[in-house]
Amino acid sequence: MAIDLGSLVGKKNPPLIGLDISTSGVKLVELSDTGKNEYRLERIANEPLPRGAVVDGNIENIEQVTEAVRRVWKKSGTKAKHVALGMPPASVITKKIILPAGLSEEQLEVQVESEANQYIPFALEEVSLDFCVIGPAQNSPDDVEVLIAATRKEKVEDRVAVAESCGLKPMVMDIESYAARTAIDRITAQLPKGGQGQIVALFQIGAQVTHVSVLQDGQTIYEREQPFGGNQLTQDVVRAYGLSFEDAESKKRSGDLPDGYDRELVEPFLENAALEVTRAIQFFFTSTPYTHIDQIFLAGGCAVIPGLVEIVAERAKISTSVVSPFKGMQIASTIREKQLRAEAPSYLVACGLAMRRFEE
C-alpha cells in the first residue's frame, strides 16, 4: 500500500477509526461529524502492549500487536473497518521542495522521485514515498511548495499487516507528529483570537520519549525528541518494590502502591519532567530566533499525573495546561466521563488520525 498523506478518497467520508500503535499500547478513536466543523466522540478504547512488542516505533512482535488491535477494536464496539494509522516521526524522512506550478500529477511524481533520490539514503524500491502540494511558494508565484515523505517499506508493511490480520482496511498512513498537530490545531483555535500569532509548545510525554513540537499559526517551527518518558517512573517502582515491569506498570496506573510512593518516587519524577521541559525550551530559544512561548500544552499518558502542570508552570514561568483533544466536542453517551478525563491526553495522536476522515 502506498503511503497516503493526502486525503481519503471519496466524498462521503465513510467511518474511519484512528489507530495509534505506540510503545505502551494501542489506542482507538472514532469521531463523527455533527456539522459546522463540529465533531462528536463516538468511541475510544485502549489496550496495553507487553513490553518489547513495539520498540522505538518498530513492531517487534507482530502477533502481540495484532492481538492488542483485535481486542481494542472489539472493546470499542465500533463497526468501522477503515483505519488511519501513524508512523513514528523518527522513521519518516520529510523534506519540503520547490517545483514549478502547473505540473500534472504524473509530472509531479517524476520530479518528486528524482528529487527524493538526493535526500533518501535508501534505494527507492525499498521506500514508500508520498508527497502533497502545500501551496504557492513564498516569493515565487510560478512555483509551488511540495512536502515529500518517505519511509522504509517494511515499516509501513508491518503496520498494514497488523491491521489486515484483524480484518481492518488501512486507508491512510500519517506521521504521528502531523496527526498530533491536526488535533492540537483544533485546541489552539479555541484560545483567545483563535490562537493567532501565539507560540504554543506541545510536550507529548510517552513511555520512552518526549516529543516536543513548537507551533505558530498551524505551522511547526521547531521539533525534537528527548529520551524521557513514563517508563522511568515504572522502572523506579520496579526497583523500589521488587515488582515485575508489568506489575509495576499496572499498579502505577491503578494507584495501588505503598504510602511513601508519592513522596519518594512521584515527586522526583515530576522534578525530572519539569527539568526536561525547561531544558527543551532553552534548546528552542538558543537554536531559533524566537525568545518567548505563550502556552505549554502537556499530552501523553504522564500528562495527568497530579502536580505535573503546577511544577512545569512554576519552573518554566509559562502558562501550562493538560490538553484534551476532545475539548469542545460532543461526547457519546456510551463514554464514561471519568475515564475520558483520566485518559484524554494520551489520545492526541489517535484523535488526529481519526480527524483524517473529514479532510477534503
TrEMBL record:
SMART domains: FtsA. Residues 16-184 form the SHS2 domain. It comes from the Bacteria. Transmembrane segments: none annotated. One of its GO terms (biological process) is cell division. This is Pilus assembly protein PilM.
